[in-house]
Protein: Phosphoribosylformylglycinamidine cyclo-ligase
Amino acid sequence: MNTYIRSGIDLELYNKLIKEVKPIAQETTREEVISEIGSFSALFDFAALSKKYDHPVLVSSTDGVGTKLLIAQEVNRHDTIGIDLVAMCVNDLLAQGATPLFFLDYFATGVLSKDVLLSVVQGIAKGCKQAKIALVGGETAEMPGMYDNNHYDLAGFVVGVVDRKQILPNCSMMKVGDYIVGLESSGIHSNGFSLVRHIFKGLGINYNDSSPWNNQLWKEVLLEPTKIYVDSLLPIMPKVKGIAHITGGGLIDNIPRILPKNLFANIDINSWKWPDIFLWLTKEGKIEKKEMLKTFNCGIGMVLIVSPENMQNVKNHFQKHGEKIEIIGKLDEACNPPLDRVVFS
Structure:
């Protein structure tokens, strides 16, 4: 007699896991959340919150963690990858000037593992706490044959809000001479790992080996979670003309996404110190600098466009919040802007 469990789907285990996920999610809840984990959909009462805005606009974003997941799965460490998932989504939301509100996740695997799922969800909850958002639900899909054993994939979904007049980037206000400000990253974040894995495979390096820095293992260096910038960025939004989240495409591809057509970014490549991991990848991976700048964040997790008159206030704000920043360039104008829209001098 054929049954669902004989096909590889254990609904009893799934239902037990959902019961254990509920209290983890409840630790992130907000007063606007009026549904429980396990409902067919999530409910968020937006009525009272909307009154704080002249013209509230909902903002949504979805993202994943890419092949960084494969490193986490290879070394069997799953407690930080959920933070990456939240960070990749909420940092994109910040680039629109929005305040994130709630989050959902999608976890797909071949065979459910209680320990792995709970570790991932705990990381997601930790990221939600950092971002001050509610984990309101998600989907756990067990698909034998679609994924190998011990392999899983993740996707995240976030919704936020911004007043229409505060939506970023504000390209019409950008001018020649505006500062380009870089906020420090916490490492590689969650982009470029296909190249990282290719380099490590070519060099025969095991992720459990020691790295050259502070007796850290490579897995600790590479799985350092993506920084979440909600606390430091939200209070300063009115002083900022544009925000670029430095994700896939690096500095070269992401900065032009927030610039008007008549301006380009003139960046001083020596204005910030590249973290050791990026110098190591450049040297040992034999990667040209332009390729590095197009693939990785190279130590800059977010880029802001700030007017000269607001620069001191912005600088004071980030110093107060313990956020390391550097002025890495200025906006410039040309009749024929360079094709890359970013020039490194």
Summary: The first helix runs from residue 11 to 26. The chain has a mean pLDDT of 93. The beta strands are 56-63, 99-109, 134-142, 152-163, 179-184, 242-245, 263-267, 300-306, 325-333, 342-344.
